[in-house]
Design goal:
The complex is a heterodimer of chains A (281) and B (143). Chain A is mainly α and 281 residues long. Helices cover 73% and strands 2% of the residues of chain A. Chain B is elongated, with a radius of gyration of 21 Å. Classes of the chains: A mainly alpha (281), B mainly alpha (143).
Chain lengths: 281, 143
């Protein structure tokens, strides 16, 4: 295939990934690496580099729409970004010392786990916990707008949330994904933030986290311009269209289809990793 | 919603639920949101321009990314990419777009640092400074 055709197909594939990712709320970043490696025969290191820059693009492009609603919490985001950026740098450093087949197997496991998480019934929003001295000291308690006026909330279990965020950052740096699901889990279930606050704050953090490891990937020569351009363009257009198409509830049937896709891709990544299908370079 | 105690408010800035702080925070976030969108748009324009130039020359070549070779050194570091892009190196122009994209969240952190400093919020100036240091270390490739 010549580069013209390859670039066009790659942009269309990335567009579909971005569209489905935002429509289902699962994020397109997680399917970019399987799309490039399994679909286009790209080396997994180049694939992770391209995925990482696409994650920065979707997170930043979505941010304006999110802040308009006034849900995100700048202080919590910044405090947890210390954890995610340190984790991301560590993950990127580990990635360069790990055999590519092992990276592929971890990637497959994360795909299966994402599928499992999204199949579970979404947890009920827990009642806001009692004020926590550390969170209060860090100025994390805030409020979010509702039709009936602002509702105050408190934050709890800051140290545990911070540690899970460091793990989310490490996965992001290792695999070139956003780790949005893990971030929301930490803020939602552990720190007990209201769901809308955790979702929007997580989106804010994804771009900063990915930027921390993207510099290292760039220096190692993992980011190829011929792959980056169509992937960035396709994912951003796809995600924007997905957000426009999405009014209110997320289509359940489409979400199920996407989960099946995640499981199939996860199994294939693990299979290729185990049989040495990625060890070419 | 009012805090029962005002202690420590001079050292830590206004309390969390203070409506004026909330309004200021939201104004900052709106500016940040707009800046992020401009950054993404700029990076896409630059990368797509580079890609059109690049495909115009190399579009008929065979696409092969199966074997990892690593990028040449003029496509790896920020100063080298800027220099090569200014010299008309087509792939470096795409890479310049990627660089703008990576710089966008970093600019967001710088803007937050300014905002926290203006609010005299010492804890968050320190927190934001750490995040910025990690980001810049990553961008420099620890070299």
């Amino acid at each position: 295939m010549n580069l013209d055709a390859f670039t066009l197909l790659l942009a269309l594939g990335a567009l579909a990934a971005g569209f489905l990712g935002s429509l289902t709320g699962l994020g397109g970043g997680v399917v970019i690496v399987p799309l490039l490696t399994l679909g286009f025969g790209v080396d997994i290191r180049y694939a992770i580099g391209a995925s990482l820059v696409s994650v920065i693009a979707t997170s930043s492009a979505a941010a304006a729409a999110y802040v308009r609603d006034g849900y995100s919490n700048l202080r919590i985001g910044m405090f947890l970004e210390v954890a995610t950026t340190l984790g991301a740098v560590a993950g990127a450093l580990v990635a360069s010392r790990m055999p590519v087949s092992a990276v592929a197997i971890v990637f497959g496991a994360v795909l299966l786990w994402s599928a499992y998480l999204s199949l579970r019934r979404p947890a009920e929003s827990l009642p806001s916990p009692a004020p926590d001295p550390l969170a209060t000291r860090l100025g994390m308690d805030s409020s979010y707008p509702t039709p009936a006026g602002p509702v105050a909330y408190h934050v709890t279990h800051v140290p545990l949330g911070w540690l899970i965020m460091a793990a989310a950052g490490a996965l992001s740096g290792l695999l070139g994904i956003g780790s949005g699901a893990l971030k929301v889990l930490a803020m939602d279930q552990v720190m007990r933030l209201p769901f809308k606050v955790s979702t929007t704050t997580s989106n804010f953090m994804i771009g900063v986290t990915a930027a921390a490891s993207a510099g290292l990937y760039l220096h190692r020569g993992y980011i190829d311009p011929a792959l980056a351009a169509p992937v960035i363009l396709g994912v951003v257009i796809g995600a924007t269209l997905g957000t426009r198409a999405l009014v209110g509830a997320r289509p359940v049937a489409l979400r199920r289809v996407f989960v099946v896709v995640l499981v199939a891709l996860g199994c294939q990544m693990i299979y290729h990793g185990l049989t040495g299908g990625f060890a070419r370079g | 919603m009012a805090e029962p105690s005002r202690e420590g408010s001079s050292a830590e800035g206004p309390r969390a639920t203070d409506p004026s702080r909330l309004r200021r925070d939201q104004a900052i976030e709106r500016i940040i949101g707009a800046m992020l969108q401009i950054g993404v748009l700029l990076s896409i324009v630059v990368a797509v321009a580079g890609a059109i130039l690049y495909l115009g020359r190399d579009g008929r070549h065979v696409a092969d990314f199966r074997v990892f070779r690593g990028e040449p050194f003029d496509l790896r570091s920020a100063p080298a990419i800027v220099a090569a892009a200014l010299g008309g190196h087509r792939e470096a122009i795409i890479q310049l777009g990627v660089l703008v994209l990576i710089a966008t969240p970093i600019a967001r952190v710088v803007l937050s640092l300014v905002a926290f400093a203006m609010q005299r919020d010492g804890i968050y100036v320190a927190v934001t400074f750490i995040v910025l240091a990690v980001l810049l270390a990553g961008l420099s490739g620890f070299s």
